Amino acid sequence: MKDAPFTAVLRSEWLKVRTTPSLAGGLLAVLAVTVGVGALVTGLLGEAESDNPGFEPVSFAFFGLNFGQVAAICFGVLAVAGEYGHGTIRLSLAAVPSREKFYGAKLTVLGGLALVVGLPAGLITVAVGQALLGEHGAGIGDPGVLRAGIGCGIYLSLLTLLSAGVATVLRSTAGALGTLVPLIFLISPVVGPDAWFLPDRAGQQVLHPVPEGPLGAWSGMAVMALWTAAALCAGLAVLRRRDA
Predict the structure, then answer these.
(1) Long-range contacts from 233-241, C-beta under 8 angstroms, 24+ separation
(2) Cα 186–191–196 angle (5° rounding)?
(3) Which tens digit of pLDDT belongs to each residue from 127-177?
(4) pLDDT digits (tens, 9 = 90+) for 54-104
(5) HSE of 169, CA atoms in CB hemisphere, 13 A
């Protein structure tokens, strides 16, 4: 069977997201909780926390990212594992026999949508957060402030793609979430100071105007990108080798 054009496959993947409530809702939740929780915590606790030594107003404003990244992980996992769970993956691969084209279109849509939502989430979060902090906040033109907002969007996009890659390997929502949640939320606190090269710690270096540790803002993002690339390559290898 002849494959559909890549643009047609892209439209199909976009339609899946737009017409699936859990996916559309998860995508909107990335924006809502990143901005909303960040603004709430900054407004309630920012002034009190600003008296603490080492207070960093920019990264403090991104408290909501702890919840936004949960939504990003769920979005990436459900967009892939949901097709296996409902058996619709067979229809998708029957319509697009080229698994590379199918996988590439899905990742393009997922990563692109996460970036489209993540960039405004990051920029609004940092702007609102600094406004709420008042005299304790940083100016939008100060070093590292705008970079943090943009970097937040890139981080959320990479995290979505990392999640999609893991879900492609495991083909299970529970399995993928059971792998990603400890990786992103639990291992870094346990490992402590030696966790710089884990994806969450590395990718979030961009949120700090003056990053600590061996990684800078963009070198940390590069480490996050390597984790993402590894997951996506593993997903492609599994997709090529296994039956739907």
Answers:
(1) 233/165, 234/165, 234/168, 234/169, 235/80, 235/103, 235/164, 235/165, 235/166, 235/167, 235/168, 235/169, 236/99, 236/100, 236/103, 236/168, 238/168, 238/169, 238/171, 239/99, 239/103, 239/168, 240/99, 240/100
(2) 95
(3) 999 999 999 999 989 999 999 999 999 999 999 999 999 999 999 999 999
(4) 899 999 999 999 999 999 999 999 999 999 998 999 999 999 999 999 999
(5) 18
Please enumerate in sequence order all residues whose Cβ is within 8 A of that of 83, keeping only pairs 6 or more positions apart, or say none.
89, 92
Residue 47: pLDDT over 80: yes
- Maximum alpha-carbon separation in the chain: 66
Residue 88, pLDDT score? 92
